[in-house]
Amino acid sequence: MSGPGPSRRVAWLVLGVIVIVALAVALWPRGGVERESDHVRRLASEFRCVDCEGLSVADSATASARIQRRDIAERVRRGDSDEAIRGWYVAKFRESVLLKPSSRGVGVVVWALPVLVLLLGGAALAFALRRWSRQPRLTPSPEDVTFVASRRSDGPDERGPGERGPDERGPDERGA
Amino acid sequence: MKHPLRLAALGVGLVVAVFAVILALNVGTDPRAEYNTSLLLGEPAPDFRLTRLDGSTLTLGDLAGKTVIVNFWNSWCLPCRDELPALQKWNAQHADDDSVVMVGIPRDDSTGAIRAAARSDQMTWAVVNDRGAEAATLDYATRGQPETFVINPSGIVVGSILGPMRPADLDRMTRVGQGGR
To answer: Which of A76, B42, B88, B168 is deepest in the core (most CB within 10 A)?
Structure first.
């Protein structure tokens, strides 16, 4: 079996380069020093507002969110690390205060499950593709070749399968 | 391997089943159950240092040996106004009882509004007003207003209620704080 043609290889190569460049651009850390207000907002957006549904502390206008925004700003100003601030809030309000599940405890399942399913799905697809590629292709028997050659030499036959005699039917039609 | 696809499907099914079991074991049937339970229950009450409306300082240490009802509220909060009659009734019933005390801590309010509310609503219990109130709000991990905690004479948080209380709730909290049921 011959491999893919050179143009197809180039296409795959270009696609691969595009994917790698896109990932690098998306994951590359942003340069510059983060302003304090941006820092506070970034942290506040990680925490769930405790007295409203589905909003972050950064986006909510409730009293709790206002208090927590002021508290986060105060902690940032006095130099607490992000990890320390997250740790304080989790200790006070439980893990559920984090909008993004942590990568510890039950949180691991949330992160690992999609990856596991993706890996298993990919493996299943790879198995299926390999099995299909190994299946023998149907090759014409000498009888088929002779029949097709004879029909070609006779010119086009306008009759339908039902109108032809048993000897005139092709190998595929005979068993039917 | 004769049926790799079947095995892969089995693997995916198994992972999903394990995930479902883990979720079922970790998520209760009542989604509000965790929310309604304070992590402070059974823990030493966080200390606070607050300034009362008359300018005097109030700390939790000053109240050692007493059953303390800590009520977080705001003057603009309608559920807080709903429970006000229960607080007033409780305060009148325990006016001569030195073993219990109530502290009202505003969560997020202006000084003027707090003073006006305390005056017009006859809030004769210890109402405080300063930045320390905000620290207490966070230290007690309050999740809204009104929210009320009861601290026993040993300084342990033995009860909490999120939402407006009825007189019966306050009586029950007081009994729990005093060691009864």
So the answer is: A76
B27 touching A, CB under 8 A? no
| Nearby residues of B46 by Cβ (< 8 Å), 6 or more positions away | B40, B60, B136, B139, B140
Residue type, B16: V
- Pairwise CB contact (< 8 Å): A92 & B12: no
> What's the CA gap between A116 and B148, in Å, rounded?
45
- Count CB neighbours of A56 within 10 A: 16
Question: With an 8 Å Cβ cutoff, are A117 and B8 in contact?
Answer: no
User: Is the pTM above the cut of 0.80?
Assistant: no
Biggest alpha carbon distance in chain B? 85
CA distance A4 to A105: 46
The DSSP annotation for chain B comes to: ---HHHHHHHHHHHHHHHHHHHHHHHS-S-TTTTTTS-TTTTSBPPP-EEEBTTS-EEEGGGGTTSEEEEEEE-TT-HHHHHHHHHHHHHHHHTTT-TTEEEEEEESS--HHHHHHHHHHTT--SEEB-SHHHHHHHHHTT--SSSEEEEE-TTSBEEEEEESPPPHHHHHHHHHHHTT--
Residue B74 in contact with residue B105, Cβ under 8 Å?
Answer: no
Quickly count: other Cβ atoms within 10 Å of residue B80's Cβ: 23
Number of Cα atoms under 13 Å in the Cβ half of residue B17: 6
Q: Give the pLDDT score at A1.
A: 46
Residue A88 contacts residue B170 (beta carbons within 8 Å): no
Q: Which of B8, B23, B143 lies closest to A64 in CB terms?
A: B143
DSSP A46-103: TBBPTTSSS-BTTT--SHHHHHHHHHHHHHHHTT--HHHHHHHHHHHH-GGGBSSPPS
Q: Give the whole-angstrom CA distance, residue B125 versus residue A64.
A: 24
Residue whose tokens read 């000084």: B111
List, for residues A1-50, the tens digit of each pLDDT value: 455 677 888 889 999 999 999 998 888 876 678 889 999 999 999 999 98
